[in-house]
Amino acid sequence: MSSHIVVKGYQVGSLIDQSGLRNIYRALHLRSGKEMFLTVIAVRPGRSLNTLLRRAEQSKRLTLPGLVPSFEYGALPDDKFFYSHQAIPSFPLKRVLADTFDDVERFYTMIRYFDDVLEYVDYIHEAGSTHRDLNTSQIRVSHRDTVLLEGFINARPKLEPRNIANIVNLPYMSPEQLMGTARADRKTDIYSLGVILFELVTGSLPYESNHSKIEDIRQGIVPSPSFYKMDVPMELEAIIVKALAPRASRYSHIREFQRDLEKYYKKRALRQKLKDLPYLLRRFFKTKVS
Question: What are the chain's domains?
Answer without folding.
Answer: 10-86 (3.30.200.20), 90-270 (1.10.510.10)
